[in-house]
Amino acid sequence: MHKSTPLFQIHTDIDERVRLIREGHPEWLCGKGCDSCCRRLAEVPRLTAAEWEVLQEGLAALPPEQLADIRRHMLELTETPSRSVVCPMLERATGACPVYLHRPVACRTYGFYIERNLGLYCGDIEALVAQGALPDVVWGNQDAIDRRLGSLGESRPLTEWFAGWVGGEGLEGAL
Ligand code: SF4
After folding, report:
1. Which class for 156: exposed (0-12), middle (13-18), buried (19 or more C-beta within 10 A)?
2. Cα(72)–Cα(6) distance, rounded to whole angstroms?
3. Which of 99, 112, 161, 162 has the most ligand 1 atoms within 8 A of CB, as the residue to mutate?
4. Predicted confidence (pLDDT) per residue in 76-97, tens digit
5. DSSP string for 80-94
6. Which atom in ligand 1 lies closest to the alpha carbon of residue 107?
7. pLDDT digits (tens, 9 = 90+) for 105-151
8. Which residues, at least 6 apart from 135, have a Cβ–Cβ distance to it below 8 Å?
């Protein structure tokens, strides 16, 4: 991704906010080993075209077997929509994100940004806040990030982007 793109600027600003928060709290919950949010998404993630372009690069670099697993999980999501969504990209055995460097903006802000009406999203961090454990944290503003993302164009569900990528054969087709 070119450094002058608006999405790169958004990533840079989020990285800086996250860095500042982590700096003051080295024990921060979000990190390798915690995949709670990836296992309990409120809905199929929606991405702008710019986010999808980045994510697609990460997906294209995965081994074919891993991509086949992801395609299967995407298909499950479209066939059996459920209230709680496990991210189709999550490595379920290890809890790792195989596209971490290419992940969407929502994954980058989760746990570090607050949305005016929806709070922090992460129940574990909200519990710490309720106990008064994080009084000095300057949270990121999710509403501002959403406005910047909105200016990049429409968002579409991840499953739609993915189905378009695998081509006219759809999610059931061969990659
Ligand atoms: S893309 Fe990665 S970080 Fe984001 S929800 Fe999926 S597994 Fe988690």
Report:
1. middle
2. 32
3. 99
4. 988 877 777 999 999 999 999 9
5. S--SSB--TTSBTTT
6. 4
7. 999 999 899 988 777 778 888 888 889 888 899 999 999 999 999 99
8. none
